Amino acid sequence: MASTTEVLSRCVAGLNATATILLTIGYLRIRRGDRMGHGRVMAAAFVTSAIFLAVYLASKVHLWVALGRTNITYQPLEGSIWAQLTSLYYLILIPHVLLAIAVTPFIIRAVYLARAGRYEEHKKLTRWVFPVWYYVSVTGVIVWLFMEYSGSLAQVAQVTS
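^ that's the sequence the OP posted. Answer follows.
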């Protein structure tokens, strides 16, 4: 049976993957001129990302309560292909974290502008906000894949079970 740590980690990854799918659909809808469909799907992506944030923070609280720490360290099994990819992991993780923090207020602003009917301002802002949000969403899943399949998550899960 999966530990709480594993369940929360997988929920976070699933929410990130769902947001990625919704962002893709939203992008395709606006490219086809379907403003209403775009708005609905992007609202769903925003809500999914908000739920992601809540679950992510809950996972941090869980780690703190269970282990007295807030992060799972990347510790791939020695000799595995994942151990050889440690530099790549950090090359993905560091911009992922920094951009996730930086883009959040701009996503909120983009939603506000759209809801206010200020579409030209919304469009101008989302020309760079959307690719960053998309990058953060996709790399969130990739970071989870590294943690899940490197054995790093399982090592922590054994301690917290």
